[in-house]
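Limitations
The structure tokens in this dataset are predictions for the assembled complex, not deposited experimental models. Users should treat interface geometry with appropriate caution, especially where small molecules or nucleic acid strands are included. An illustrative entry is reproduced here so readers can see what is and is not provided.
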Amino acid sequence: METIIKYPPQSTWESILQRPTQSVEAIESIVNEVFLAVKQNGDTAVAQYTKRFDKVNLESVFVSHEEIETASDAISEDLKLAIQQAKSNIEVFHSAQKTAKVDVETQPGVRCWQQKRPIETVGLYIPGGTAPLFSTVLMLAVPATIAGCNNIVLCTPPNSEGVIANEILYTAALCGIKTIIKVGGIQAIAGLTFGTSSIPKVSKIFGPGNQYVTVAKQLATKFGVAIDMPAGPSELLVMADKTANPAFVASDLLSQAEHGIDSQVILVSTDENMLLETENQIRIQTQNLDRKPIIEKALENKKLILVKSDQDAVDLINYYGPEHYIICTDNNPFFIENVINAGSVFIGAYTPESAGDYASGTNHTLPTNGYAKAYSGVNLDSFLKNITFQEITKEGLETIGTTIELMAEAEGLMAHKNAVTIRLKSIVDESK
Amino acid sequence: METIIKYPPQSTWESILQRPTQSVEAIESIVNEVFLAVKQNGDTAVAQYTKRFDKVNLESVFVSHEEIETASDAISEDLKLAIQQAKSNIEVFHSAQKTAKVDVETQPGVRCWQQKRPIETVGLYIPGGTAPLFSTVLMLAVPATIAGCNNIVLCTPPNSEGVIANEILYTAALCGIKTIIKVGGIQAIAGLTFGTSSIPKVSKIFGPGNQYVTVAKQLATKFGVAIDMPAGPSELLVMADKTANPAFVASDLLSQAEHGIDSQVILVSTDENMLLETENQIRIQTQNLDRKPIIEKALENKKLILVKSDQDAVDLINYYGPEHYIICTDNNPFFIENVINAGSVFIGAYTPESAGDYASGTNHTLPTNGYAKAYSGVNLDSFLKNITFQEITKEGLETIGTTIELMAEAEGLMAHKNAVTIRLKSIVDESK
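Predicted assembly:
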């Protein structure tokens, strides 16, 4: 069985590195329906769709103080300490991302500055489903809090008993989130977009979700709401040369594969033996994993790619723009230096992707689907916006005024010119 | 005639401050048509739509070296110097926005860092039409160049003689843009989205445009291309107390009004007399302006709002989130301190909006339509993306490993846990 792709020429990269495509046509009609209903009927519509999709009638969509206390009691001390350590590291790294005001005099009397302000109202979407993704609560709530967002609204779907996972409630409360709403799926995104009596209208929506949530977030942008980034299936590319440990590499590829059957795993190497040994390790380790059926399905699309040189590897990797990118070579500085397109980069034998997924401090909300070519992962700036300020003195305007007048006139905008002329004239009149 | 809105209660803000709405339904079908055609037929389709919309058959869509030289010769030395001064100020302010690498050890042996990389390929869209908006060339090309974008593609529509305005060509060449393409409108955005033989596929599209271009940019995001920000009609809000100069204030409101009949101008004051005097000044100054018909139409929707206090003013202004915001009061520091939602802020009597539109150094590509609540205007970061990196030592993994294992297990992701376990085990085995 020959699964290794050897020395692929650049003309074949597009087809080799093609991502799993998603057909959203079918989803769009139900997303449009829910948006229209929630816009018109608010909470009533939200409750109807919660009943239909989540199979539950809720008395209240708000999580009570009692529910949070019960949840906290149900979690082991060990797990609490783990969550607290992860939170602390995420705080350290995201706090370090604060920037100073940029303040310059571009020419005498012309002062321009740039200062960040928090986005006042943000919505954090946390998926429900089989696994409670409380780590995503940390990844969104921690930077939102550091940024100083005033109103942080967390939406997450209830199970059919109307309950949210203990870990999500504990983590949200630990992060100081006051508004936790039991609404998920399209109706949550619609509620955050239009606002209802229970769900505040927000300016920006963050967080992962299934295809319905993804399409709903895309639609939300049509109604003036910003989103963190468009989403696609998760992906990992590992660059490993002959010095890498095939068992470690295999364990990382498997951790990516367990996310879902559409997860994409790619291994690039300058050493054919490394590819073969890793493939063997994948086979061995898969046997003991709970999510074997998902993993085996995802692995059907794995790519093992042999390249001639580190430079060829770098070119191919930047062409792909992986969400997660592990570098295990004896030439790591070269690969770090030449990363152009990637979401998050993991370096060396003892830096598994899991570290960044949970606890090292970096964010795990990252650009998939090649979006790393234009988008950053979620970071402190995702919760801030830059405002520019300027203040010009009389003397400053006297120096720069003619430039503005000439340019405005050349653009045919005489009222723009006049706003300068009338001021310059007044300065001259005053000095008479 | 009573045009002043006195002390509006917060419940009325939504209707008072409503922005002109745009119906895009009709536009969407032609945008979809052009996208499909350009995707399928590339340059052939682009040429067909250029013929249909711009009424011209081009021999080549590329601007030649000769055309640039001819354009440069046709521009007055005065205007050249003005453009150069503006460019210099824009360079100073946008260069000052460079940030250092963020590099921290979140706990011993766990190093996380964040570093920016340029977006490799960007498209700059410059509108054509009656006025040649060469200032927008500066606002996009200068930060793209400072960011280090490798491939900068400028698209702008030709006139019916197949010609681009001299000022646009001169400015683009001055900024070092190598690829100037004579394609405008929907077909330009479609070309940049899919790529054609002539037009490179880009990762992000920047720039203003009419409703067709705006809807086309929105559609481009569905095909994996990022855009600078969604767009709406331009707007200005001036806060002026009794110490402001009504003639200056009027000149600024008029410079906003001349942009188009859907431009929005709002004047907020704590002083009724200031509102009345400014209204009078608007009447007087309008008489001498070239674009009187546009201005008068836009002014039909102007709002003059009287508020009780500076705090009321600030609340109303942040509720609106103006694109351009001029502050002319004797309490400017209070207003600066309390700005939460605005694109660009102009402070004091000698800082007209025109200064920032052209030459002071700030960018004029700004969030309209209330998008200032979530979006920044174009700045250096718009052309960069943040990549996170992490490197963990053996000792680091020994410290953080249990945390990752516990969290992965609680999320039901055992392969994530195993990626740590297999490494910790190997460290123990080694030390035996």
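Some entries come with short summary sentences. For this one: Chain B touches chain A through 129 residues (CB under 8 Å).
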